[in-house]
Write a structure and sequence with these properties.
This protein is of the alpha+beta class. It has three helices and five strands. Strands 1-2-3-4-5 form a five-stranded mixed beta sheet. A hairpin with a 2-residue loop joins strand 4 and strand 5. It is globular.
């Protein structure tokens, strides 16, 4: 099968890795691989446009973005049932949203952008 990197190709790649299916145009049901076959079920909350951002902007290729999704799913905590898109990547969450209800909230407090050269100097 020729993959062009679309959201549907992500579903197919995850299904090749384990058992996965699209439940809607923004939700993918994934059974994590285990020694006994498909195991714990998780939901990936990610639209086709968000997937395009991950493949084009963040990771630069379909293959790298799929590997990042798999890595995120492998590292999900015991209470996490969702991998939710947030700022060009998926983050573990206890709910289908990121923020106060679950997942990683944006850091609070002061902060600043700093540019550094190749030797790490600001």
């Amino acid at each position: 099968m020729e993959l062009d990197g679309s959201w549907h190709d992500l579903v197919a790649a995850l299904d090749d890795w384990t058992a996965a299916s699209a439940l809607s145009d923004r939700t993918i049901d994934v059974a994590l691989p285990s020694d006994d076959g498909p195991g714990r079920r998780l939901m990936v909350v990610l639209t086709p446009d968000e997937w395009e951002d991950m493949t084009d902007v963040m990771w630069g290729s379909f293959e790298a973005a799929v590997e990042e999704v798999k890595q995120t799913l492998r590292e999900m905590g015991a209470d996490d049932a969702f991998a939710v898109y947030s700022q060009y990547r998926l983050v573990p969450s206890v709910s289908p949203t990121v923020g106060e209800e679950g997942g990683w909230a944006a850091p609070s407090g002061p902060g600043e952008w700093v540019a550094s050269d190749s030797e790490g100097r600001s």
